[in-house]
Amino acid sequence: MRHAIARLGALAALLAVVGLLPWLSRNDPALTVLRAKSAEQEATPEALDAIRADLGLDAGPLALLGRWAAGLLRGDLGTSWVSGYPVAPAVVSGLGTSLTLMASALAVALLLAAALCAPTVWRGARGTLGEGRPGGAIGAALVACPDFLIATVGLIVVGVWLGWLPTSGWDGPANLVLPAVAMGIPAGALLGRLVGDALPGAFDERWVALWRSAGVTEWRIAFGVLRRALPAVMPQFGMVVVAVTGGAVAVETIFAVPGIGRTALGAAKSQDLPLLQGCVLALMCLGLTAGALGHLARRAMLGSGLHDAALSPPPPPRNASGPRQYAVPAALAAILALVVAWGLLRDPLTVDVTAKLLHPSWAHPLGTDALGRDVLARLGHGAARTAGSAVAVCAFGFVLSLALGFAPRVSAGVADVANAVPAVLAGVLVAAALGPGTAGAAVAVALVSWPNLTAHAAALTQEARAASYLTAQRALGASPAWITVRHVLPEVAGPLARHAVLRLPGTALAIASLGFLGLGTQPPTPEWGLLLDESRAYVEVAPAAALAPAIAIGCLAALTVSSANLARLPRRKAAYV
């Protein structure tokens, strides 16, 4: 009951903020609606007054919210301010399109996640996993691939050059392929990395050795380990569903797919308040449903062990020591530092139209863009805005999630609602209040990125507290605070830190995607997402300029994952005595 009240309160607060959007933006909503309806019509005082009277803007935001809520109780989502048509059919149509695209993208994601985890499952079931842990470099690189860049490359290569698939529209199954692949690859890589991170610990639990000595088949061991490892990341599946459905605005824009994300973005830009509120409500319902199903699936997979304190923690990780484990992160850090430092020594704003779209040379090591600006300089100067903002957002999410993980009831309802809000929609709301920019993009991503970490922290905390050895600690008189600090916190902090670091490239991409859509850093200021957007039109002519920021983000992803593997500190043996 408490969770339901929290969810309803958070949902009402979000819808109220959406209802205040025209007033938060400090722009005249009547003028915006007039421009959306007819860009050629002159904005005379009479025309603006007529629009205000027709929409009831003179009554103020509270009256409009009350009128919309009253209609909602009758099943009426209102009428579009721009088109004049009922909102409900447009929302249902956009949601149906997005759900179809989501199902296709999830199929791609699950296949990719299974492929990434299959070697670990196979070696673990045979008892040949070894002393080290899988680094997941391929998964990390795929996580770092921006969906809008995959979509752009797929459109050009597969759609234009080869002519195998349609490049736009929504006419049949063929239109599903390129968008589904673009959206499914990063989502599947993230799921594969999270499951892959949980598998080695599950294979090291004592019951696996007992099963193997008892002659249990490898297939049954693999199935049992998957059932043990999946619950900790099961809430992430529901969150991925929402992210794929509502956060694919860039992909829907590139392929002209009439999904609900693209509909919400268009409604926000035109300040079509009833349509925007209807889209947000649909996304909220989808997010709450997906989150509830994920939690139910997790509890069903854990069974009675969650209540009977019968879960066993994994033994200490057996990391191989030596200088080799530091070679990869050191090399990647050196490469990124060299590129950024070299770029910082050059001018990113100098325009030379006689030197536009040049190929790499000594004068311009990464070539030039469409205005003749040095790509290396813009890459170096944009690193602080993209990578620096992503580090700050991930650090904030880790600290907040670690605290909320020990009190999941405090944030359960708010987290479900915040998770259902696409980063693009948050970017629209923040940009309306603060204006577009790097800081606003970072704030928007921070507002919607913490639920993923919080859900993971809560799942890890619940399983750590249900460990059987803690019963002996309580019987010996250990206080709850001592158990939390001495045993539960080390069990949660390590995996959560690796998850936070793993999300660093995705956070950088989320910030970059807002720049890509014009909601983040504004030109001519360099930022990696903006660089990708600017180079998208001439990727065929100057591929180096388009690939440079993508490769930089890929190197950042590999660096973060290899560094996360170094963070696998051994747990204290006393916890397992």
Task: Record the SSE blueprint.
Layout: H1 2-19, H2 21-24, H3 29-37, H4 45-55, H5 61-73, H6 87-126, H7 137-143, H8 147-161, H9 174-203, H10 206-213, H11 218-229, H12 234-246, H13 249-254, H14 260-269, H15 273-302, H16 324-344, H17 375-405, H18 408-419, H19 423-434, H20 438-465, H21 469-475, H22 480-516, H23 528-535, H24 543-566
Family: Belongs to the binding-protein-dependent transport system permease family.
Membrane topology: Multi-pass membrane protein
Protein name: ABC transporter permease subunit
Q: How would you characterize this protein structure?
A:
Belongs to the binding-protein-dependent transport system permease family. The chain crosses the membrane at residues 101-125, 137-164, 176-196, 237-255, 275-297, 326-345, 387-408, 420-450, 541-564. Helix content is 70%, strand content 0%. The radius of gyration is 25 Å and the shape is globular. The chain has helices spanning 2-19, 21-24, 29-37, 45-55, 61-73, 87-126, 137-143, 147-161, 174-203, 206-213, 218-229, 234-246, 249-254, 260-269, 273-302, 324-344, 375-405, 408-419, 423-434, 438-465, 469-475, 480-516, 528-535, 543-566. α6 runs antiparallel to α12 (234-246) and α6 packs parallel to α15 (273-302).
